[in-house]
Amino acid sequence: ISQPGYIAQIGTTYNLVAQVEDDPNCVRAPGVPRNADMQVRDATTIDMTLVTPIRKLIGTLQYACFTRIDVATEVNKLAKTMNKPIQEDYDDAIQVAQYLVNTPTYGVVFRTSEDGVRLVAWADASFEAEGEGYSRSGICFSIGEDSGAFLAKSFTQFNRSLSTQESEIQALSEAVRYVMYFRYILEDAGFPQDPTTVFEDNNAAISFTKGQGDYGRTKHIARHYRYSVDRQTANEIDVIRIDTEDQRADQFTKVLDVSTHAKATYANLNLGYEILDHENSK
């Protein structure tokens, strides 16, 4: 599922053309929003004349995110700047648009899993990645490990975490709530599910979910974040360790460098690693 026509319209609207791949200035990733943290913004540089243009541009990019989840984190961060934008915010949003124009045929590729209709989830967090000490969660879901993600979310956590473990537990709990909803739908549709695999790259969060680890260090964690523990105990989920470099939800917790972003994009959209190997061989 892709939107090449819509992305072509973005290029036309903002006078962007696909850049030559061998050009050293070619935009190969959405880029890092430079001033998305409003707490460190210089008020003297705010340009209120940019409010309407940047809202229109961000709205355009948000619609593209339906199939281009590889820009979800960047667009989410840039959306925070719309009420008090500066020129760099608009420039960063244009860079995201340029990346889309450079990769118009990218889209989410779904395929039948050898295991049938099997729900799989990924959960990750970036500790204190946002302003005022808040962390960011990233979660995504697919039918089978080798299919594109049918849903991905990148969002700032509602409560401040006191540790990396706590931020990961928050992300995991949110993912499990979605898992239970999707399990009910699939089972009603005639696809009963074995315990749903949820991939997590934090050992402490996994131990917490399985009822292990140091209770004294986690007893302060809010009760509703223990939802994942209950679902693990009920054998409805199985939280499995995964290496951070293979954690597909990592793309939705922070802005990645070019090569890491490319690898995550090809995994989450299921574009095929042969593309990545071809590009790295150039």
Describe this structure in words.
38% of the residues lie in helices and 11% in strands. The chain contains nine helices and five strands. It has a five-stranded mixed beta sheet with strand order 3-2-1-4-5. The longest helix has 25 residues.
* Number of distinct helices: 9
Q: How would you spell out the order of helices and strands? A: HHHHEEEHEHHEHH
Strand content is 5-15%
Tell me about the biggest sheet? 5 strands, mixed
Radius of gyration: 20 Å
Shape: globular
Instruction: Give helix % range.
Output: 25-40%
Strand order of the largest sheet: 3-2-1-4-5
Beta strand count = 5
Head-to-tail CA distance between termini: 28 Å
Q: Please, what is the average pLDDT?
A: 88
By secondary-structure content and strand pairing, the structural class works out as alpha/beta
Oligomer: single chain
Contiguous uncertain segments of 5+ residues:
273-282
Keywords summarizing the entry:
282 residues; alpha/beta; five-stranded mixed β-sheet; 9 helices; 38% helix; disordered C terminus
List the helices and strands and how they pair.
Blueprint: H1 4-13, H2 51-64, H3 72-79, H4 87-102, E1 119-126, E2 136-143, E3 151-156, H5 164-188, E4 196-200, H6 203-209, H7 227-233, E5 237-241, H8 258-268, H9 273-280
Parallel strand pairs: 1-4, 4-5
Antiparallel strand pairs: 1-2, 2-3
Helix pairs in contact: 1-4, 2-3, 2-4, 5-6
